[in-house]
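Friendly challenge for the regulars: who can give me the structure tokens for this chain first? No prize, just bragging rights.
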Amino acid sequence: MTAPSFDSAGAIRFDLPRGAVRLAAEDERLLLVPSQVLGGLAKWVHGDALEAFGRALGAAVGRRAAARIGDVASASIEEFVTQLAGEAALAGTGLVEIERWGRALVVILGEPALPAAMVAPFVAGAVQAASGRAVEAVLLSGDEHAARVLVTSEQGAARVRGWVASGCSWGEALARLNGGRL
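First reply, four minutes later:
Bragging rights claimed.
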């Protein structure tokens, strides 16, 4: 079996005479923004607005990944993650990997370019747009090197947030979510 691959050739087009950067496939215009600007934005914008912005960024990545996959319902998890990771890398948001903790899906965003407050909404938006399924995301841990984000249902997210807020480690919260089994 051949491992899925991501072909980035020609995915982004720099049109210097017109001062534009475009996604080649959709001819959608892009804006290259330094990650420090997003960090500054996160200091001034909070709550729902910051979450909506993160989800919108993720949704754009997820839609492009879904378009590359084609039939998402029949794609393997490896193909799904490969295309999602490739689109996230093209967007400059970080390196996407997944971990399975029992039935729980944890997305790792390595070297994240997003402020911590935007990581979980970004992951939720990307997975939801790519899969066509409603999901919630909970930031389990994060620093400048990697962020771990649980992708789950609204109910699962509320339970994990509650357990972590009450002092559980994120690993223990995932074990509880899996009925004590990992």
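The mean pLDDT is 92. The helical segments are 35-44, 47-69, 77-91, 116-131, 154-165, 170-177. Your move, everyone else.
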